[in-house]
């Protein structure tokens, strides 16, 4: 996978700004967990067990609503909701437990319907795409392999950006690495955190339901359209301005 380099002065390459304004160009930036692979509930299970080990017992639904954030942000959000205080070493320990438990569960994770077909079709149509995830490289790698992602594909992981979702940084980096202006990018995500990050980056946000969030909450978070899953989105690419013929 290509390595990210984040510019401080601009979220996109100069050549993107220099394109003829009349030229039609666009790119897709995909979240990974819950959007392209069916891993959300495995993450919920792993976090529930990890947090229990450090003394924080929580129902699965409460954790699910925070999936899509980086590990430390997820823990801090849950601490705020429950009024529980944790020391830095406890937070770090919970993240380590999550990694160990998720590694045990990740073998069951499969691509969601249409995920590979959608990526292949965009490639056929010469529409650039990248995967932008809040997961650390070691957690993302097994499911990326399941999805058939190779070293030639563009992937941005948590370790390659300064600030994670819902900050806009990850999608800025994804656009930059594709040589695109962020305003010419469509962000596909399953969580409100994906869509909030997309909105803050000024990209077009599109939601999918396969991560477990509801249509109403995705629309309230700024989704232009909401589809069931990548298979459904594949049948409606024209609604997003993609010329399929």
Describe the structure.
- It is built from eleven helices and six strands.
- The protein has helices at residues 14-17, 40-53, 60-64, 71-82, 88-105, 115-124, 137-146, 169-178, 192-201, 215-220, 230-234, and strands at residues 27-30, 129-132, 155-156, 185-189, 204-208, 225-227.
- Helix 9 links the parallel strand 4 and strand 5 (204-208).
Entry summary:
With 245 residues, this protein is of the alpha/beta class. It has helices spanning 14-17, 40-53, 60-64, 71-82, 88-105, 115-124, 137-146, 169-178, 192-201, 215-220, 230-234, and strands spanning 27-30, 129-132, 155-156, 185-189, 204-208, 225-227. The longest helix is centred in the middle third of the chain and has 18 residues, at 88-105.
Helix content: 40-55%
Number of strands: 6
Derived from helix and strand composition plus strand pairing, the structural class reads alpha/beta
Q: For the terminal residues, how far apart are their CA atoms?
A: 30 Å
Mean pLDDT: 90
Name the helix and strand elements from N-terminus to C-terminus, one letter apiece.
Answer: HEHHHHHEHEHEHEHEH
Please describe the biggest sheet, giving its number of strands, its sense, and whether it closes into a barrel.
Answer: 6 strands, parallel
What is the overall number of helices? 11
So what's the overall shape?
Answer: globular
Radius of gyration: 18 Å
Please give the order of strands in the largest beta sheet. Answer: 3-2-1-4-5-6
Topology diagram in text:
Blueprint: H1 14-17, E1 27-30, H2 40-53, H3 60-64, H4 71-82, H5 88-105, H6 115-124, E2 129-132, H7 137-146, E3 155-156, H8 169-178, E4 185-189, H9 192-201, E5 204-208, H10 215-220, E6 225-227, H11 230-234
Parallel strand pairs: 1-2, 1-4, 2-3, 4-5, 5-6
Helix pairs in contact: 2-5, 4-5
